[in-house]
Queue: 2 jobs
Job 1
Amino acid sequence: MNAHPALTARQHPVVQVSNLVRSFGQGSNVLDGLDLTIRSGEFVALLGRSGSGKSTLLRTLAGLDEAPAGTVTVPAERAVVFQEPRLIPWKRVWANVALGLRTADARERAAAALTEVGLNHRLDAWPLTLSGGEAQRAALARALVREPKLLLLDEPFAALDALTRLKTQGLVASLWRAHRPAVLLVTHDVDEALLLADRVLILDQGRIGFDLHVNLERPRRHGQPAFSSLRSRLLRELGVEEENPDEPVEELRAPARSRAPAASATRENHAVWAASTDALARS
Ligand SMILES: Nc1ncnc2c1ncn2[C@@H]1O[C@H](COP(=O)(O)OP(=O)(O)OP(=O)(O)O)[C@@H](O)[C@H]1O
C-alpha cells in the first residue's frame, strides 16, 4: 500500500510504522494495526472522518502520545505545527523561534527563519501583538529553524481566514520546496490535500484505508481536469456527495474554534494554549 511506483529507491523511508495499535480504554481501537511508510522529502496529507484518529497518529509520530503498541520509527529531527500557534506570550517572537536552540547564533538562526516566513520585521515583537496569520508563520519558523527531516502539521491552516489560509498554504509549499522535509499534514480539506501533497491517505477504521498518488504538476490549481478527477475520487472514498466540482469543499471540517482542546492539549502547557487561543480570538 505504501510503495507507489513513482517513489524511487532514492527516497529512503523516514517514517516507518508497523502494526500500530492505540486505544483509549473504551470501545474499539482508535488505531488498529496501522502500517505507514513516509519517504524522505515526501509531502503526505492525511484525511479521514472526525474522530478517525488522525491527530492520534500525528501525536504518536511527534512523540507526544504514550508509547503505543507496534513499531514506530521516526527521525530525531522532527517538528510539529498545530492548529493554534502555541507561542509563549512572555517571550519575544525571535526567542519563541529560538526556543531550545543552544548555539550562540540562536538569534541569527531565528532571524533567518523569520525572514523566510516574511516576519523579520517582527523579530522583537511580543506574540500577542501578532495577527493570527503572523503567529502561525512564527510557529512555522520555529519548526523550520530546527531543520526537521519530518515536519508534522496538524490542521495548521484551520483557524485562519480564507485569504490568509491560501497565503499560508503557499508559504508551506515554498518552504517545502526549499527545504524538502518529509511532511505529514493532517487536514479536513480535500482541496488543500490535493494542492499540496504527493500522496493523500485516508484513515479509516484505524488503518490507512486509501492511498492516492497525486501525479499533478506544481503549482496546482482548482478546476484543472486532472485535479477535479482526483478530487472526485477522494470524495467518493470519503463518502461525501459532490455538489459542484469547481467549488472548494470543506464538508469534513470541524468548526475551528469550537474544537475542544482536550485531545491536543492534554500533555501540553494549558496556559500557553489558552494564551494562543486568546491571541487568535483577538485577531
Ligand atoms: N487523550 C484522549 N483520551 C481519550 N480519548 C481520546 C484522547 N485523544 C483522542 N481520543 C479519542 O480518540 C478518537 C480519535 O481522536 P483524534 O483526535 O485522533 O481524531 P481526529 O481524526 O484527529 O479527529 P478530528 O478530525 O475531529 O480532529 C476520538 O474518538 C477521540 O475522542
Job 2
Amino acid sequence: MNAEKEIKKDSLHENLDIEIKNNEKHIEIISPIGGSILGTVPAYSKEEVDREIKKAKNAFPAWRDTPLSVRAEVLYKASDILLRNIDELTDLLVHEVGKDKKSANSEISRTADFMRFTADTAKSIHGESIQGDNFSGFNKEKVAVVTREPVGVVLAISPFNYPINLAASKIAPALAAGNTVVFKPATTGALCGTKLVEIFKEAGLPDGVLTMVTGKGSEIGDYVVTHQGINFINFTGSTEVGEHISKMTTMVPLLMELGGKDAAIVLKDADLSFAAKNIVSGAFSYSGQRCTAVKRILVLNEVADELIAKLKELIEQLKIGNPLEEQVDVVPLINERAADFVWNLIEDAKEKGAKLICGGKRESNLIFPTLLDYVTTDMRVAWEEPFGPVLPVLRVESVDEAIRLANASEYGLQSSVFTENIEDAFYVASKLEVGTVQINNKTERGPDHFPFLGVKKSGIGTQGIRYSIEAMTRVKATVINLHY
Ligand SMILES: NC(=O)C1=CN([C@@H]2O[C@H](COP(=O)(O)OP(=O)(O)OC[C@H]3O[C@@H](n4cnc5c(N)ncnc54)[C@H](OP(=O)(O)O)[C@@H]3O)[C@@H](O)[C@H]2O)C=CC1
Ligand SMILES: O=C(O)[C@H](O)COP(=O)(O)O
C-alpha cells in the first residue's frame, strides 16, 4: 500500500518549493517554526542503502585516479553554485532548522569559503621521500616514496544544527582527497542536505562519487554504519549516538565530533564587559544549539556579582522569537522534546536552590534565554549538555578550583579563559583537558582551517581543513631498493 494523500502546507511555509510525498516510503520534515510539514525525503530501505553504497564503491577507482587539479575544480564550481543559490538556501535553512537569517546566510558563505580553501589546501599537501641510512644497518640504496592515498568510501553523517556546513565540511575534504562519499544527513536538515548534493552534482561530480541515504538514524543508522562497503566514518552528533556507533563498528577508522560542556573561566582581573559580551554571544547564538556554545561559567567569587549584572543586562537585550518574521537572536529549539529536556534542567536547578537571574520562561519550543546563578555540582545543569539557551554560573574560590571543575566534566571540547594576565592564561590553558582553549574569546570552531577536536567524550580525531584531508587519507610507502 503506497497511497498518496494531499497535504496542505502551513501558510508560514507555503513559499517553499519543496515536494511533499505522503506515503510510508517517505519521512516528513517538520519545521521547528510552527511545527508543520515542510517537505518529505525518502526513507531508504536496506536494499536502497546497499545500492547507494555500491555506487560509491564502484565510482571509487576512477575518482581516486582523477587528477587532483580536476577534483579541486569541482569544489571551486560547487562553491560558486552555492553562492549563486545563497538566498534560496538561506531561506530553506531558516524554515528547516529555525536558524536566524543572518546566521543561516553566514553558514552558506562560510561553506563556500570552506570548499575553496579545501581545494587549495588539497593541492598543497604532498608526500615525502625518506632515505634508509638514517636507521642503523641501512644505507642510501633504500628509499621510501611516501604518498597519501584515499581510504575508499567515506560515510559522512551530519547533525541538524549546521545542515549545510557540517555536511560540506566532511564531504569536501573527503572528495578532494580522492574518496567517494555516502552522505547520511540528519533527518531534520535533510532538505538542505538534498540541495547540497544537487549542487555538487551540478558542479560536475561523476555519478556515484557522492551518494545520499536518507532515513531515520534510529531505523537505518545501524545498518549503514556496519555496512561492509564503508571504509571510514566521519560523524558529528551527540555523544550518545557517537558512542553507539563506535561500539557497533569493527576495524573502521572513526572521526567524530560529539557533545560538549564548554566552560568560560573568568578570572579576577578579566575585562568583565568584554567577557560578558563574548559569553552572551557564545552561549545564546542559535539558542545554544551549537556544540561549541558556552555551556557554563566558572567565575572567581570576587567578580561574580559584577559579571552577572553585566550578563543580565546583555541577555535582556537579546531579541527572541520567530526567525521567519524578523532578525532575532534566540529562536525556538529544534523540537518540543529538545525544549522539554532544557526545561527539566532549569527546573532541576531551581528545585535544588539555583537563583534564576533572567529567563526561565517558555512558549512551546521557544525557551527564553536563561541565566542561573549559584549553581552547584549536585545540579544536572552543571554537567549535562543542554543544547539550548540556559547558562549556569558556578562561583569558585580559586583558579585551581575552576580548573578542577572544568576538568571534572566528561566532555573536553573547548574552554575559554578571560584574564588580562598572559601568564595566568597560559597556566590555566596548560591544565585544561580540552581540544582547544580560547584566551579572551568565546568558544568557537572557526576559522575552519584551525584544528577542531574534542577529547574525552567530545570526540575522536581532528577536523579542520588540512586535518580532515589527512584524517581521510592513509600513508602509503613504496620502497625503492637500489643495488648500486
Ligand atoms: N562536536 C561537534 O562538532 C558537534 C556536536 N554536536 C552534537 O550533536 C548533538 C545534536 O545534534 P543531533 O543531530 O541531535 O545529534 P544526533 O546524535 O541525534 O544525530 C546526529 C546524526 O546521527 C544520525 N543517527 C542517529 N542514530 C544513528 C545511528 N544509530 N547510526 C548512525 N547514525 C545515526 C542522525 O540521524 P537522524 O537525524 O535521522 O536521527 C543524525 O544524522 C548535540 O549533542 C551536539 O553536541 C552537534 C554539532 C557539532
Ligand atoms: O556544530 C557545531 O555546533 C559546530 O561545530 C560549532 O561551530 P561554531 O563554533 O562555528 O558555531
